[in-house]
Amino acid sequence: MRVSRTFVAVSTVTLAAVLSVSLVGSSAQAASLVGKPCKKAGVTRPDGPGRTLVCAKITKGPQKGKLVWKLAKPPIPPSPDGEIPAVIESWGITVAPYNAATKKAGEMYVGSIPFPPGSTMTAPIQYYGEGPRRPTDPPDYVDPQMTFFVPLGTTVQAIVSGEVCAVTKLVNSYSDDYSIGIGIAVGGQPACVQGSDGRGFGRIATWEHEHVMEPKVKVGDLVKAGEPIAVASYYKKDNWLYTSGYALYEIGILASSPDGRPMHVCPALYLKPAVKERLLTELATAARAYEANTGTTHYAAKTLETGCITEKPSYG
């Protein structure tokens, strides 16, 4: 599947929002603060996958002058048209054939993991599309991005070869870690462009490595797929990830729809043909091994066949 799209960057809070709801239970995830009172104008906070709230003053009506949470509009940088190329060569970590003796598939442990009660994180390969929807989500909203749970200290590799367009500190989020965006040069055009606010993103697409720590690259660096660029994030030392010896990171492809809405697509749809079969086979084997080791079921056959919880873009 190829999608001809226009691409945008998102704010640091928006980049963090996808995972911000995953450390809480389903009941917390279902409630949105849109329209609820807030205290300081201009303050932002995550509100679910790809959504950010901003505290703003009501300008008309009986509630005029009061501060409430509103959905923030994403930035609109220059965004030329382009087709997403199939260039992903790695999941960002080494996912190798499953070893029953170690219960590992490469760097990923697929034995029992102490996920907290009520967490929407329930497996080492996590698709958030199966999670509960929020009142502000469109009826057909399904998040196609993938998160990997790995042992603490696991190196994160570039999933594509290209230029580093952004190394963004997620200082306004609960995680206080980084997002690294890589762009691809196509047709003699630069790999990266800047938005009106100075933030960088990919000209054709932004291949995201979100929730990472100790970035080893900077904006403008040229990287090869498989090259170490950071380590997986444990968020903060007082949470269950760190105390249990785990970390995580997320991959995604950020785009925008023709009408300018932020859009994410399933990364597995854009695997490089030469490695696609191997990567999907290794991922499926690891996923099924986790189910066998824990006596649980997490993945539909179609998901493991394609590597996607959905093949449709998600917006918002």
How is the quaternary structure best described?
A: single chain
Structural class: alpha+beta
Low-confidence stretches: 1-30, 75-81
What is the helix content? 10-25%
Q: Please report which band the strand proportion falls in: under 5%, 5-15%, 15-25%, 25-35%, 35-45% or over 45%.
A: 25-35%
Mind telling me the CATH class of the largest domain? Mainly Beta
Major β-sheet profile:
11 strands, antiparallel
Count of extended strands: 21
Mean pLDDT: 81
At CATH level 3, the topology of the largest domain is Glucose Permease (Domain IIA)
Distance between the termini: 21 Å
Count of alpha and pi helical runs = 5
Could you describe the 3D structure shown?
The chain is an alpha+beta fold and about 325 residues long. The protein folds into 2 domains: about 5-10 and about 75-315, Glucose Permease (Domain IIA); about 25-70, no CATH class. The chain contains 5 helices and 21 strands. It has helices at about 10-20, 25-30, 240-245, 275-295, 300-305, and strands at about 5, 45, 50-55, 65-70, 80-85, 100, 105, 110, 125, 145-150, 155, 160-170, 180-185, 190-195, 200, 205-215, 220-225, 230, 245-255, 260-265, 315. The protein starts with a strand and ends with a strand.
